[in-house]
Structures are given as C-alpha cells and as structure tokens.
C-alpha cells in the first residue's frame, strides 16, 4: 500500500478551499477561516531523508519502528482537521513567530522522552494523538506492530488497530464523516476522539454483577 497516495486521495476534496506550499516543503490543504484567519484544515510536512531519520533516532535514543519510519519518509508528521488528529515528527525549530511561514509538526520527542506515561514499556513507541479527550496518545507496540490509543498518563489500551496504515486511513475516514465540505464540525467535539473499544474496569465490574444476579 502507498500510504502517501491514500492520504492524498482522501484530502484532495479539500483542495478547492485553498492550497499553500510553504518554503520548507509543508503543504497546507483547505483554508479554514472558521478556525482562524490563517488556519488550514490539513498539514502534510516534507518527508525526512535517511540522514534526518538517523538524527531523530539519535535524539530518541531508540530505533523508530519500521512502519513509522516509512511514514516519516512520506511526511514528517501530519495534522488532520487542524490539530484534531496529529502524528508527530522531527521538529527543527521552536520559533513561534516564524511558524506561520514554515509550519512544523509536533515533536515526537515530547511523549517518548519528556512526558512519557509512567507505566509505558520499552516496546511502546509514541507517535501522536488527539487534541480532545484529555489529550489521549497513540503508540505502536513493537512486539506486534499494532497501534493503540491510551490516556495521557496511562498506556492501558482504549482502542486498537492492526497496523499503522489501517489506523491512519480509518481515522481520516472517520473524521471526514464528522465534518462538512468546508471542514466545519457537524457533531459535538467529544466525538472527534474515537469511542473506546474496551470496557473500563468499572463497566466490567457491573457487567459481572449483572451475570451473577
């Protein structure tokens, strides 16, 4: 599967709203004045070369999972519907005043190194997340290559996908359904975060009680 082609096919419907190619290679798709005067719906960042990926791995002090490394070669992170759904990458500057001219992804170092959940295991590699629902994270489990969503400070899975490509494309499709042709949200903002596939401990407890009585 060509993940880059599949992503572009899905986002192409918003090109009629406006497209901008920035000097650092960032592609902005779909002007979104309902969010802010200079806002765009989607951001695809210039892919990383081998040298840049090596640099990122040195900073992470770990190897990037093969699936995510391949994705980074297409796009150094991704922002869908502004920052509703984000995948992280190599951030080369933190100069906020210049970011409008050359937009950058969120840093993949943040969750993997500085704000890593306390119960995260070595095989958990964090790749992004959502801006609603207590800032839930996404991570790849190196042991099975599956992708999981979890809470900000707890790696217990809330959602599971078989692989990275499945997660990216299914989430883009889901979010497109929640927005109109102009990129405005049609539902309550809490629905932009995936509904958990797994029962909480509390729900599980009450279900067991129902079976007993």
UniProtKB/TrEMBL annotation:
SMART domains named in the record: SMI1_KNR4
Highest taxon, organism lineage: Bacteria
Residue intervals of the Knr4/Smi1-like domain: 47-170
Pfam families in UniProt: SMI1_KNR4
Protein name per UniProt: SMI1/KNR4 family protein
Native source species: Winogradskyella bathintestinalis
């Amino acid at each position: 599967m060509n993940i880059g082609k599949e992503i572009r096919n899905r986002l192409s419907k918003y090109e009629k709203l406006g497209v901008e190619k920035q000097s650092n290679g960032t592609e902005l798709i779909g002007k979104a004045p309902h969010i802010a005067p200079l806002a765009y719906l989607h951001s695809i960042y210039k892919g990383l070369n081998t040298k840049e990926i090596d640099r990122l791995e040195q900073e992470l002090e770990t190897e990037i999972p093969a699936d995510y490394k391949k994705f980074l070669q297409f796009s150094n992170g991704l922002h869908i519907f502004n920052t509703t759904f984000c995948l992280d990458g190599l951030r080369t500057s933190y100069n906020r005043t210049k970011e409008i001219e050359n937009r950058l992804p969120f840093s993949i170092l943040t969750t993997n190194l500085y704000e890593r959940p306390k119960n995260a295991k070595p095989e958990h590699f964090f790749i992004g997340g959502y801006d609603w629902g207590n800032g839930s994270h996404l991570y790849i489990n190196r042991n099975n290559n599956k992708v999981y969503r979890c809470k900000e400070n707890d790696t217990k899975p809330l959602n599971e996908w078989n692989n990275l490509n499945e997660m990216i494309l299914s989430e883009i499709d889901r979010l497109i359904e929640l927005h109109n042709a102009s990129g405005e949200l049609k539902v309550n903002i809490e629905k932009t975060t995936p509904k958990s596939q797994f029962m909480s401990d509390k729900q599980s407890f009450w279900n067991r009680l129902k079976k007993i009585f």
